[in-house]
Amino acid sequence: MTTVVRLVVMLGMFVVIPLGVALIDGSGVARVRRVWPVAAAAGAVALWLPRGAVATGCAAVYAAATLALAAQAPRRLARTRSLAPSEIAVLTALATPAVAGLALVAERAGHRLFGFDLDILALTVPHFHFAGFAAALIAGLVCRGSGGGRAGRCAALSVPLGTLLVLAGYFVDDWAELAGALVLTAGMWLVGLLTWRDLRAAGPDRTTRALLGCSAVVLVATMLLALSWALGEATGLPHPSLAWMAATHGLGNAVGFALCAILAKRRQHAAPWRAGAGAVVGCA
């Protein structure tokens, strides 16, 4: 792993996932949140150790926490019995960090899980912290914050769908991954549009509005990069390298989009996300 990738992953482990999980109600989620700092510390240690047994063991501690979080998805579904678009988004957010956790264990063990190169596994870790957890959670909150209209529902559905299609594309071929990237990009741009048009003006102060505006604008560039990379992989056309993607698309989405959006939501002091509750104002 490069230094940039490690730092981005740590941002997801220590900041984005804990702050995002705090926006979701449920006693099981609360229990996972209480032990998360210990698991994140173990995961961070794993990132910086050489590949081997110790790094793998530390990564396994983190993966166990992500699996515990994923286990809350079926429990939440059983409790709420809701498949509203915003609920589908939050269920996706709860489940996707487990993909990152398992990829981290395999990469730190030097094991080519499902035959994937270690470089791909290393980049899968940040991808499912941000394009998985953060993007799905934020899309669901945008759906509620914009009043649950058609555009909001499309955003809340297309981001999880695009994320899952990208994951499926790993196992099929580059064209399937490109299809997933197209769906995900459309969903993320819709999230950005709704944030800029509907939510930014409702921010309670200048800082919150600036955070929301930044999260919306950054998506224009970062998702264009994602499309260019997926198109290049499928067609053989020139496209950015993985290292360049990590330093631009990855860093931009992590800091400019996910972190800004989560911080904006936290500044609004909204109640935890409860199924069936009214619109939650102002998160991108």
UniProtKB/TrEMBL annotation:
Keyword Hydrolase appears in the UniProt entry: no
Protein name: YndJ-like protein
Organism expressing this protein natively: Streptomyces gilvosporeus
Alphabetical list of Pfam families matching this protein: YndJ (PF14158)
InterPro entries linked to this entry: YndJ-like
Keywords: Membrane, Transmembrane, Transmembrane helix
Highest rank taxon of the organism: Bacteria
Transmembrane stretches, start-end: 7-28, 48-71, 83-106, 118-142, 154-172, 178-196, 208-230, 242-264
Keyword Transmembrane: yes
